[in-house]
Amino acid sequence: MSKDSSLFSGLLVFGICVPLAIFLGYLLATPLDPTSMVWIVMTLFLLLSPLLLKWHHEALIISWNLALVAFFLPGAPAVGYLVGGLSLVFSVAKRALLRQPNGIHCPSVSIPLILLAGVVLITAQQTGGIHARALGSDAWGAMRYFQVLGAIAGYFAFISQPIAPHRAKLMAGLFFLSGVTSVIPVLIALAGPGFQFLLRAFSLTSIASADTSIFSLDLQRFVGVMFMSQAVCCFMMLRYGIRGILDWNKPWRFISFVGMIAFGLLGGFRSFLVVFALVSLVQFYFEGLLRSRFFVWLSLGGVVGLTLLFAFADQLPMPVQRSISFLPVQINPAVRRDAASTWDWRVEMWRVILPQVPRYLLLGKGFNFDGTDYYLTTLGAQRGMSTSYDAALISSDYHQGILTLIIPFGIWGFSAFSAFCGASLRVLYRNYRYSPPELRSVNTFLLSYFIGRLIFYFIFYGEFFIDLGLFTGAIGLSLSLNGGIRQEAEAPAPAPAASREDWRLQPV
Questions:
Q1: Which of left, alpha, beta for 387 (phi over 0: left; psi -120 to 50: alpha)?
Q2: Could you read off the pLDDT of 52-72 as tens digits, one per residue?
Q3: How many of the other CB atoms lie within 10 Å of CB of 301?
Q4: Are 352 and 393 in contact (CB under 8 A)?
Q5: pTM score, whole prediction
Q6: Distance, CA of 403 to CA of 398 (rounded, Å)
Q7: Domain ranges, ordered by start, for the chain
Q8: 137: exposed, middle or buried (C-beta count within 10 Å: 0-12, 13-18, 19+)?
Q9: pLDDT in tens, 133-178
Q10: Which of 482, 474, 437 minimizes the C-alpha distance to 452?
Q11: For 219, phi and psi rounded to 5 degrees?
Q12: Neighbours of 169 (CB within 10 A)
């Protein structure tokens, strides 16, 4: 390279970097201004685009369960869905520009999701479009559409390329372990008012750390701790399996696992124990432990644990008592009334909404709802002027999986989602049945996790726009880890029979 060429390159870099540094310095003078945030993020995105182009798939896997939100964008969407959209764009661009091979093909899962996306978009168009509170509209619901479509786009980003076999267990572990970030908002809330501005970067579902019940019961509920516990327990079950967790030669695994469950009870949600029990029972079955000594020892340990729980349940912290309130144990009466009240108003809401289901079978209600009505109804419920579930009826928060799907999107959305679930279960089972030894624990847990979450979604509790990402993430990760749908390995060809001439050479 000539001297003049080197001088020109240096001047070019200098001419770009200096104005860019001055521009960023000007923006950083008001870093909390929304306009400044958007420009800063766009600049950083352009600077990091070469790295994202290479590592976008890994970034998608790690960020899918993060508790972070893009607070600088309208509506503060989840970072995982944003990265999923970017990863899909990068995958298409690399395939078109670099002539890379196509991704993983799984029509049995992909086609129902495409049909589901079509049902969502058609329903939105037929029910008045997509309206966002963050953009000044009186009608709300755009974020729910974004979550559903983002979950579907994320699935296609997952299957855009396979994960290298030597990194499969690492990436699968990071997929679940990234949920540990949910505990950060709890730590920020406990740190004091000087750090409250940091809460803007985290999801609202993990920020809540205190609640005062309708019975004037000061109930401290560490929601983020519950999500952290779920993430760690999922990681351990994926990494070691139940058999590995119960390995007496490594007692720290069992102690850590039980400790995480105890921490999770501080969230005060009964769903934590129900989901954990469902996933564990399914995995216990698929690991073939029902007739093993592990089942006997675990049963004896369960009997001892329940005995202690019956004896000391009313002395446990209030959130823990609420988490176990569905069990026939003696707990604080105020805690039991608080837990029972949430069940009572849900049952009453289902009685009101069930007769309205037929009118939404052909054309669903969609996600749009009037923000003013919702605000006034919520305010009226706080003052005792309306029932506690009126606001939930307006916003379609029916707290039941089937209702949150069939009312917004009718029988067409329910059929597409059911086809997706059936095809996903078939894929997950084949990947489990024909799994190589190095991925046996991973494929076993992904199948157990999907089945456990699906049972909980249909029977106990579910929100379609929230839970869809759990299912698309699990099946997308499985396809990416296994390079598609695993097939039964062909039996090796039998060795040719020895001839009469060389029988003396055969070993005895």
A1: beta
A2: 777 889 999 999 999 888 887
A3: 13
A4: yes
A5: 0.85
A6: 6
A7: 15-102, 108-161+333-486, 202-331
A8: middle
A9: 666 666 788 889 999 999 999 999 999 989 988 899 999 999 999 9
A10: 474
A11: -110, 105
A12: 17
In the block, which residue shows the tokens 């139940």?
A: 242
Spatial neighbors of 81 by CB under 8 A, at least 6 apart, are 146, 147, 150, 151, 153, 154, 469
- Return d(Cα 88, Cα 84) in angstroms, integer: 6
| pLDDT tens, residue by residue, 335-385 | 888 888 888 888 888 888 999 899 999 999 989 887 777 777 777 766 766
The torsion angle over the Cα atoms of residues 17, 23, 28 and 31, rounded to 10 degrees, is -120
Residue found under tokens 């396809």:
479
Confidence at residue 252, expressed as pLDDT on a 0 to 100 scale: 92
Q: What is the CA radius of gyration of the chain?
A: 26
CB 439 within 8 A of CB 235: no
Judge whether residue 493 has pLDDT over 50. Answer: no
Q: How far is CA 223 from the centre of its chain?
A: 15
Distance CA 181, CA 469 (A): 18
* SS (HEC) of 395-436: HCCCCCCCHHHHHHHHHHHHHHHHHHHHHHHHHHHHHHHCCC
DSSP characters over 319-356: HHHHHTTTSS----HHHHHHHHHHHHHHHHHHHHHGGG
Mean pLDDT of 98-116: 86
Residue with tokens 């698929």: 286
What burial class does residue 380 get, using C-beta atoms within 10 Å of its C-beta: 0-12 exposed, 13-18 middle, 19+ buried? middle
Burial class (CB in 10 A: 0-12, 13-18, 19+), 347: exposed
Please give the pLDDT value at position 72. Answer: 76
Which residues make Cβ contacts (< 8 Å) with residue 442, sequence separation at least 6? 168, 169, 172, 238, 435, 481
- Which two tokens mark 14? 């200098």
